[in-house]
Structure formats: structure tokens, C-alpha cells
Amino acid sequence: MPANLTPAYKAAEKAYRRAREPAEQLECLREMLREIPKHKGTDHLQADIKTRIKEVTQELSAPHKTGGGGPQTVFRPEGAGQIALVGPPNTGKSALHDRLTGSHAATGPYPFTTQFPQPGMMPVEDIAFQLIDLPAVSSEHPVPWLANALQPADACLLVVDVTRPDCVEQVAAVPSLLGERQVTLTRCWPVDTRNGDDLEDHDPFSVTLPTLLVATKGDLMDDAEGEVATFCELAGLDLPTLIVSATTGGGLASLGEWLFRHLGVVRVYTKIPGRPADMGRPFCLRAGETVLDVARLVHKEVAASFRYARLWGGGDFDGQQVGAEHVVADGDVLEMHT
What we know:
Residues 192-200 have low confidence and may be disordered. The strands form two sheets. Strands 1, 2, 3, 4, 5, 6 and 7 form a seven-stranded mixed beta sheet that branches. The protein has a five-stranded mixed beta sheet with strand order 9-8-12-10-11. The protein is globular, with a radius of gyration of 22 Å. It has three domains: 7-61, no CATH class; 82-262, 3-Layer(aba) Sandwich (Rossmann fold), CATH 3.40.50; 265-337, Ubiquitin-like (UB roll), CATH 3.10.20.30. The chain has helices spanning 7-18, 22-35, 43-61, 93-101, 146-150, 167-172, 174-179, 224-235, 252-262, 291-298, 300-304, and strands at 82-86, 118-124, 127-133, 155-160, 183-186, 207-215, 241-243, 265-270, 278-286, 308-312, 320-322, 332-337. By secondary structure, the protein is an alpha/beta fold. Strand 10 and strand 11 form a beta hairpin.
């Protein structure tokens, strides 16, 4: 039976997928439950929403533990985007994370060195991407909270070591192991997994991540491009690829540029009337977002009382007056008026 989800429900689900804080998620979940059509076609989805409401409510009501509460497993996104590093054991994920972010992540020549998520910031020009190094994906060492850790991510780096003799079998198992946790890796960039445009057969609690396959230890390969292409064919993977080396630094500079371009990052700078623009701290958005989206990032009160903005950069002339729905471009400077 079709769900026949209403525009009001779809808007609530879109808000839920954009929410980052548990309190905001709970508010959106309650709105989803209020707006979902009540019939047999939505019985399963209603049950899922009620379960998620219960889980988030328990999370919010639980006392904050000090000492012994356990390591953090979910991190709020920071910077231009949160990128998760996943892969089978001993592929060089932690070494790559350390080289890109200076995190000093634990590394070792044995599997499952990384036990809990390790965040770090990778600078790219005047912004930074948040990289989250995650435990290895393996049937031998399942991680029950992995899907929750991936929920806030904007994209994924599937880190592989094609010089290992067992690399094909290990990496080929990763998509199915993640699929068991409702996580899907896709080659499509950018992918807005929170847009809510096609929800009839969609699970709002699944995670779909645009994925770049990163082959480490490129310095140890004689024909890196050929070996990686053969590996992808044997492993049945159809993903964009980048070859790097955490040891020599080869290819690492291209990674940040690749993410910037394929995620559609847009940097917008702001200024106060009568003062020069603050060109050192851009707000990071995605291609297609608007002046009102910038206002929301500045402050919710600015968005609520927004009247117009003056634009330098992407307009017909400097200081052009634009409205809330004007689509911003990379490098734009906005002066908000409320």
C-alpha cells in the first residue's frame, strides 16, 4: 500500500535530516509523527518514528556522566563538512588521518588499532573539513554504534590498501556490512541525503554517503592507476578514486581540492555596514543555497528579522540589493539588513 506522504510530512523529514542536536531532532520527529498519514501503508514507518522518539528522549533525559561515561562516538559536524574514513583493517586509515589533520591518531601493524572515532580538521585554503577516523569495518569485529557515528557525515572516504593480498575480499565485504546497518555508499557527488524530495519508498533513518575510494600506499605500486583499476573491477566497486601516500605525501594536496569541488562548497563572507568584510572567516554552504541560508548561519534572529542584503561579488554590480531567495556563489560578500 503506498504511503502517500504529504508535503507537510516531507518538510518535517527534511528538517529532521538536517538537524544535528538531539533536541532539534526530537522536535522534528514529533512533527513527523503528527503529519504522517495514519493508514496501513505507514504502520511500519510510524513504529520506526516512535522508536526513534523513545531513543532520543532517553538520550536527552539521561544524566551526563563524568568519568566512566565512555568515549564519544558521534561528533557534531564542524567546518565545511564532516567526512568519515571507513575501510577494512590495516589499510592506513589512521596514518592518513594523522598526516592530513595532525591528530596523532594511534597506528600499528595490527588490525583494529582504532577503537573509537577520532576527529580532526584538514585545512583547505581558508576553510577546513572535519575528518572522522572510524574503527575498521569487519565481520570479525562488529561495531554496534557505527551507523550512528555515520549519521552526521556529509561524505565518506573508503580507504583501501591494494598492496595487501587479501584486499579484494576485505573491501568487497564493506558495502554489505554497512548495508546491514542501513548505510549505503554511492558514487554520486554531491548527494543531499536530507532533501526529502522522493520519500515514498525511503527510510528516513537510513544513511546514504557519497564516497571517494582512496588508495593508500601509492608509493609502493609500480603501476598505481592500473593496479587500482584492476582492484575495483575485482571487488565490484564503481566509485571515483584517488591514489595517495601518507608516507611521501603524494596525492594528498588533491584530496582537499577534490572534496571542495565535488561537495559543492560555497564560501560566503560577511560585513557590517561601514566596515570592511571579514575575509578570514567564511560561512560554508552548498551550491544552490541562498542568502536566507547564510542569515540562518549568522544567527537565527538575523534570519527571523531579515529584510534584504547587499551583495559584493556575484551580483550585477557591487552593493546590489538582493532578497532572501538569491542563490549565493563562492566568494560572495554579504551585508545583512534586518
